[in-house]
Design a protein that fits this description.
By secondary structure, the chain is α+β, with helices and mostly antiparallel strands. It contains five helices and five strands. It starts with a strand and ends with a strand.
């Protein structure tokens, strides 16, 4: 196994708190699944902040940023039944990883955390 890329991002929660007042922002950045799940969250600011940071960390792990038709909504962060966050590997993500690194099988690792003022995400992209 080989590490293909790593990415990290930190964001001030206050910034996202202001932005999520705008429904256009939410619909442009977050997937429909993420928006549905957010409705059940008591702290929506930190929920959205962590996912925003995770999306940024992911594109940093690719080393290409938001190019080749990749946008925020293409990157979806979900949680398994124990609460562990993960990237949902859809066709678009698979295609971008394949094009960037010439691999078909890969692992994506995600760690997200927050506190009162900041949220952070760390991503590692690795061959299988």
């Amino acid at each position: 196994m080989k590490i293909l890329g790593i990415g990290v991002d930190i964001i001030k929660n206050k910034r996202i708190k202001l932005l999520i007042k705008n429904q256009k922002f939410i619909k442009r950045i977050f997937s429909s699944n993420e928006i549905i799940i957010a409705k059940r969250q008591s702290n929506k600011t930190n929920y959205f902040s962590k996912r925003f940071a995770a999306k940024e960390a992911f594109v940093k792990s690719l080393g290409i940023g938001f190019r080749d038709g990749l946008n925020f909504k293409d990157i979806e962060i979900l949680n398994d039944n124990k609460g562990k966050p993960f990237y949902f590997k859809n066709k678009k993500i698979n295609a971008v990883v394949n094009k960037t690194f010439k691999v078909k099988k890969y692992n994506l690792f995600l760690s997200i955390s927050d506190e009162k003022d900041y949220s952070i995400a760390f991503t590692m992209l690795q061959t299988k």
